[in-house]
User: What shape does this take?
Amino acid sequence: MTDPAVTVTDRASYILAANPGIMTLDGTNTWILREPGAEHSVVVDPGPVDDGHLQAVLEASRPVGLVLLTHRHFDHTESLGRFAELTGAPSRSFDPEFCREAPPLADGETIVVDGLELEVIATPGHTTDSACLRLPADDSLLSGDTVLGRGTTVIAHPDGVLGPYLDSLAHIRELIEEGLVARILPGHGPVVDDPAAVVDFYLEHRAERLEQVRAAVDSGATTPHEVVVAVYQDVDESLWGAAELSVAAQLDYLRT
Ligand SMILES: [Zn+2]
Assistant: This one.
């Protein structure tokens, strides 16, 4: 059997979970981080409950010093209880519900595990508890679902909020500008090697959609569904349910 772990940087590799879908793209990327020569790893987003996936992650990550969650969504956290049981490792997230034997994350905090250094950056928007993790030694940013490897992310109203999301994208853009992030390691899809272009595309896409939603409201659309029918003609109908959540977030943003 081939090794399922894909090495991306000196410190980061990932294992793709077998949960492809319209929201998860190819599936969830479970990231395994380890300082070169060190023993303990950090596992980010253990992913769905799937024995094959958990086994592969265990083999690549043991012994695990810490489990981190980028946000509360099921496709990232479902296996947390099982994984914590198998590894005995503590876990941390902005949402206290996913913390075991460790405190919630704090914005700006530096975490060190067996020599591996990570900076915690609060990036609310996709969800209120979304976190990005910067791996300074590799100029990389683990982005969870805040920035994906392909397409754009859903702002799942009411947990997802557009104003904070735009601020989070602007913050990531600044880190790229300052030379602190050369690559994005996303929760779904391929690694992003041109992060400035991708974040600019996200910002433009959001501004454009917001204009379209504003125009649809001006022409009389009132419900998220009516707005989606008017605005998302270019998007496959299988995505309209997700689009309605994003539209609800946009309507909320326009109202405030
Ligand atoms: Zn996800």
Notes: The chain has seven helices and eleven strands.
